[in-house]
């Protein structure tokens, strides 16, 4: 049996002072806290001592680092690749989900939901009707996972993506339904959803938050 792990990493906090649902829009970079989150993940994977004085950590065997083409994902991947002497690869299949509300404030009050023209896009939460179907997100994410697993066979790969694609991929591999309450996602900023394989067979799913100490007070991320 050849053991391989593919970590799905959600990027760190984004600088988004206007509170927009930024989706796939270019130019959304990590905040200072977001950069600190990325470094915290890199340190955890590289086995660097915990700044808070916790127990010694084991160095992971990362041989592949690949990110979504969006700036926030590339910036999150950079310190991890540097810690292992690797280049950051780019895979379009890891990109954020397409969303009709991209570039808008999403909500009532002064948000886009005030306008009846947008209401038809909310008619089907199961697909969902406002954006890229969940099934299509899972298909492209699992294709990226398969490619990374082949590259890192016998080692570990880190794929930097976005909250919704990571979460629906986890739901799919665990055999759960894809439609869900967004408030119940277990996929915090800079979290790792780890898919463990023996040869090509998935044998386990893990979840960890290497940047947990930086989460309190982090800004809500729209279009993460």
UniProtKB/TrEMBL annotation:
Q: Which domain of life is it from?
A: Bacteria
One Pfam family name is His_Phos_1
Spell out the molecular function terms from Gene Ontology. glycylpeptide N-tetradecanoyltransferase activity; phosphatase activity
InterPro entries for the chain: His_Pase_superF_clade-1, His_PPase_superfam, NMT_CS, PGM_Phosphatase
GO cellular component terms, alphabetically, are:
cytoplasm
Q: Which Gene3D superfamilies match?
A: Phosphoglycerate mutase-like (3.40.50.1240)
Q: What is this protein called?
A: Phosphoglycerate mutase
Q: Which organism is it from?
A: Cellulomonas biazotea
